[in-house]
Amino acid sequence: MIPLVLIPFVCMLLMYIFCLFEDEELRPPCGLHVLGFKGCQVQIAWNPMVFDDTLDKHIIINLWNYKTSREYVVDPDTVSAMISFLPKTKNFVTVSVRTSTKCGKPSDVFIFQAPAQVIPKPRNLNAHQLGNSSVLLIWEKPEISAGALRGYSIHYYDQRGRRRSLTTKSNQCEIRHLISGLIQGIPYFFSVKTISVAGISEPITEEIILKPHVSSKPDMPTFEHEIVETDLFDLDLEEPCSSSEILTFIDENNTTKKKALKVTWLPDLKGNPGDRFSVQYRKKGESIFRCSGVEEERNFILLTTFHDNDYEVYVTSVDGSFSNDSRIQDIRFL
């Protein structure tokens, strides 16, 4: 039986023996430090590791505070990583080496005080005039994320400072918005904010003054499409029409959620984009195209009377009495 007074020394001896036989390649990285902060993320770094073989090895980053913890996995030859921090609190970080069968000893704990979280805002907002009274806003997603991106909040102000809330886009992939009913010669100030699970960003802004526009033939548009579920009104026509016939039809009784084809108009912004558009479509094998009707308020149209089939679809940009068609795309609606 070991006397109690000797137990601490025995433990130290056992730890020393363990260290002698410890797998050298599972030793923790050294020199853990912070390189800087960007938005809601922190870049941490450590000294390079030398491995005889990097197969089945990863570097594990553990970050925690007094309430929660996070784990990140990076390649063994990595020497820095950008990870999300826990805002406005002390953050504790360690790094270690792990294989599929063994976990190495963690590094010494590195402690830093995290700043308040900054929600990254959208990038490169541009306002493009369409016709006499419309503007198409286009922007890019934030460079880095602040939690899950939920969408965008869009507003504009006129010269008298009157503010109008346009919309909250719940689709993070939508980075365009059409605004109509504006007046020539008046400065308009547009703003777009990021909405994420962590909050709302500061706005990115753009100013435009609409100039007089003389109608002419639009340049050739293009379009994107996706299959979605919707309960919006049916915008399809029951009668065929040519691309020169611009008709409007809304079936107010059709509000049942169903599968639809969403067609997003991409006007040519380097030339004359037009100020509104329509969608033409037909089933493969049919001779006559059907027309969706003109759209002036949005940059997309939902076609809800499609059935499982192959279709031919194109869009038509319109400016006054002039119009121009895109190329036809073959779409399988299933």
UniProtKB/TrEMBL annotation:
SUPFAM superfamilies for this protein: Fibronectin type III (SSF49265)
Source taxonomy: Eukaryota, Metazoa, Ecdysozoa, Arthropoda, Hexapoda
Signal peptide, first to last residue: 1-19
Matching SMART domains: FN3 (SM00060)
Protein name stated in the entry: Fibronectin type-III domain-containing protein
The Fibronectin type-III domain, residue ranges: 121-219
Source domain of life: Eukaryota
InterPro entries per record: ECM_Regulatory_Proteins, FN3_dom, FN3_sf, Ig-like_fold
PANTHER family the UniProt entry points to: RECEPTOR-TYPE TYROSINE-PROTEIN PHOSPHATASE ETA-LIKE, TENASCIN
Keywords: Repeat, Signal
